[in-house]
Specification:
CATH topology: outer membrane lipoprotein receptor (LolB), chain A
Radius of gyration: 19 Å
Number of domains: 1
Shape: globular
Strand order of the largest sheet: 1-7-8-9-10-11-12-13-2-3-4-5-6
CATH architecture: Clam
Number of helices: 3
CATH class: Mainly Beta
Structural class: alpha+beta
């Protein structure tokens, strides 16, 4: 019986180290990829709920499609105080216009930038695409340094399931989209799998 805690701890250790991905490379189905690939979002207002390591933020997020094909993302509270204002150029480069002091830290800026880069589907316009099969779903991905941005479809290419950031083994970030109005869906839920950060967006109007 004295061996049980050790055995259990070993099981939990190896279980936590188990890979999330079991991907098998397959030829790219360009027809399915072009049908399912995330489209650029249109200008929309969202109610935002952000929970990070025990802190809660709420307010309004404006995702604005600009005439030059760039995007702006502005997060304010209900009183109109701006938390951040940043954008992505038409070639996907992040530009910070404003960030409150509490958030203006390199890791926070990088994390928020990558989160909204995925929500907006920016990585998938940087190509080239590769594809993998899990037996149940098809993953289309664009590799960026040590991570890959994925958009995932059912085997029959019927619908977009979710978006993800992941490395060779582990899922880092997932984005679920639901409800009508795509490419600016009614609900967007982003979850980090390596630390406590969740962003929930509910559309309240379109420009």
């Amino acid at each position: 019986m004295r061996c049980l805690p050790f055995s259990l701890s070993c099981f939990l250790f190896f279980w936590s180290c188990a890979p999330d991905y079991h991907l098998h490379t397959i030829p790219l189905d360009s027809g399915c990829a072009s049908k399912i690939a995330p489209l650029p979002m249109t200008s929309s207002w969202y109610h935002a709920s952000v929970d990070v390591t025990g802190n809660h933020w709420s307010g309004l997020v404006l995702i604005k499609s600009m005439p030059d094909s760039s995007h702006r993302v502005v997060f304010t509270n209900e009183a109109g105080l701006t938390f951040f204002d940043f954008g992505f150029s038409k070639d996907g480069k992040l530009k910070i216009y404003f960030m409150i002091k509490k958030l203006n830290k390199k890791l926070v800026v990088q994390t928020l930038g990558k989160d909204f880069e995925l929500i907006l589907g920016e990585p998938f316009r940087k190509g080239p695409l590769q594809s993998w099969d899990t037996g149940q779903e098809v993953y289309f991905g664009v590799k960026q340094k040590k991570e890959t941005a994925y958009f995932i479809t059912s085997k029959d290419c019927a619908s977009l399931q979710r978006l993800e950031w992941g490395d060779a083994r582990k899922r880092r970030v997932s984005v679920k989209i639901s409800g009508p109005g795509y490419p600016s869906p009614e609900k967007i839920e982003l979850t980090h799998h390596t630390f406590a950060l969740r962003i929930a967006l509910t559309r309240i109007g379109q420009e």
